[in-house]
Amino acid sequence: MIVDVDDTLCLTEAGSFELVNDVLARMGRPPMSRAVHKSTWGEVLLDAMPVRSPGVDLERFAEVFPGVLREYLAAGRLDVVPPENLEALDKLVLGGRTVLLLTSRAEAEVEHMLAPDHVLAGRVSGAYHQGNTRFRKPDPRAFDELLAETGFTPAECVYVGDSPGDAVAAGGAGIRFIACLQSGVRRLDEFDQRHVTAVIETFPGLPAAVDQLDTPAVP
User: Fold this and answer.
1) CA nearest to 186, candidates 174, 168, 172
2) Please, which residues bridge with residue 199 across strands?
3) What are the DSSP calls for 51-76, one per residue?
4) Where do the coiled-coil regions begin and end (predicted)?
5) What is the dihedral of CA 14, 190, 5, 208, to 10 degrees?
């Protein structure tokens, strides 16, 4: 079971919007609009920043961002995994599923979630991000390292995510895709339906959806 992080495992768009604007403010730059943030949501952070803040000094942004991120994490303003989502992960693990994360985040943006004392410890077996993958979603090759290192075949995997790019990447890799619409940032009609295997309204519906995929169709 491969799980996207942002607005799938945890709802982060709103918090990320505040975080990035906080970084921009500390750099003396004007804030971006919510519409611009949503239009670039899901892109690699430094790739999105020239659109979010035209003319931004990317090196300076990359210097300031980690410290502000740590402040937000310490204050519980970002990357909070709800108890019901943890319960869903527990059901997957107890059902014999291997749970892995696949995100477009940079390594520094996800390493705290891999700490031994994090709530995901014991629930998630590994994570794939910019630090250990060569390609980014929606490129189907974003799954290359995951598949090579785990030995799983695409047919054995299911990816759950919240964006059309997630669906395109999974479909191109031959991996079944479950669209999670909980964040409300994306609508189902924005997805290429050829790549959507199932739909869930909230993350806690994931275990049942996965079980349904494994249930043989009645002739």
Assistant:
1) 168
2) 179
3) HHSTT--HHHHHHHHHHHHHHHHHTT
4) none
5) 120
Mind listing the pLDDT tens digit for each residue in 150-184? 999 999 999 999 999 999 999 999 999 999 999 99
Task: Concatenate the DSSP letters of all residues of 123-185 into one string.
Answer: T--EEE-TTT-S--TTSGGGGHHHHHHH---GGG-EEEESSHHHHHHHHHHT-EEEEE-TTSS
Identical fold for domains 2-10+80-213 and 13-74, yes or no, is no
Residue count (the chain): 219
Specify the fold of 2-10+80-213.
Rossmann fold (3.40.50)
- Round to whole Å and give the CA distance between 22 and 91: 37
Phi, psi of 2 (to 5 degrees): -105, 130
Q: How many CA atoms lie within 13 A of 22 on its CB side?
A: 16
Q: Rounded to whole angstroms, how far apart are CA atoms 157 and 42? A: 21
Return the residue matching tokens 């891999």.
114
Longest dimension (CA), the chain: 64
Q: Which CATH number fits domain 13-74: 2.60.40, 1.10.150, 3.90.1720, 1.10.357?
A: 1.10.150
Task: Say if CB 24 and CB 85 are below 8 A apart.
Answer: no
Show me where the domains of the chain are located.
Answer: 2-10+80-213, 13-74
User: Distances in Å between the alpha carbon of 188 and those of 81, 109, 122, 199, 200?
Assistant: 23, 28, 32, 8, 10
Mean pLDDT of all residues in 61-86: 95
